[in-house]
Write a structure and sequence with these properties.
about 150 residues, 5-stranded parallel sheet, 5 strands, binds flavin mononucleotide
Amino acid sequence: MNIKLVYYTKTGHSRKIAEAVGKELAIEPLDIADNPTLFGADILFIVGGIYNGVSAGEMIQFGEKLRPAMAQRVAIITSSAFRKDTQQQLSMTLKSNYIEVIGECLVRGAFTVISMGHPNKQDYNTAVEFAKNLIQEFEDQADNESAE
Ligand SMILES: Cc1cc2nc3c(=O)[nH]c(=O)nc-3n(C[C@H](O)[C@H](O)[C@H](O)COP(=O)(O)O)c2cc1C
């Protein structure tokens, strides 16, 4: 299975979250700012934060350029100080490009004194478990389909 992992970060949290997930999955996190080349990913994990209630503009632009030949399905990992907002615009952009969005995981980041100390070990673990569970589900589904 071809699993890829990209992140966009302004203050470093998404990079650290992506590194934790990448370490567990034994894949290298790619920085969206470096314009990574993607092709044929079964699942692409996208990690990013929330800024003034929404995704970074750079994240939306990345989503606009993504095509099913680059990644068939996407799972989003979102960090924010309030752990409330989702990257809804990113999801909608991907769906309009015929890319399946298979889930979004919210983890706590921090903003000035709000949620200081996050993301912490537990937050990294939340993201890692989300990624592992989704991959397991995908593998189980593929096994079931090949057995039919
Ligand atoms: C300019 C700015 C605006 C932010 N706005 C919000 C916000 O509206 N809601 C929220 O929950 N967190 C907000 N945050 C916190 C970030 O979402 C959080 O720290 C996230 O982990 C940042 O990811 P990054 O370090 O990868 O850039 C903001 C952070 C910054 C720097």
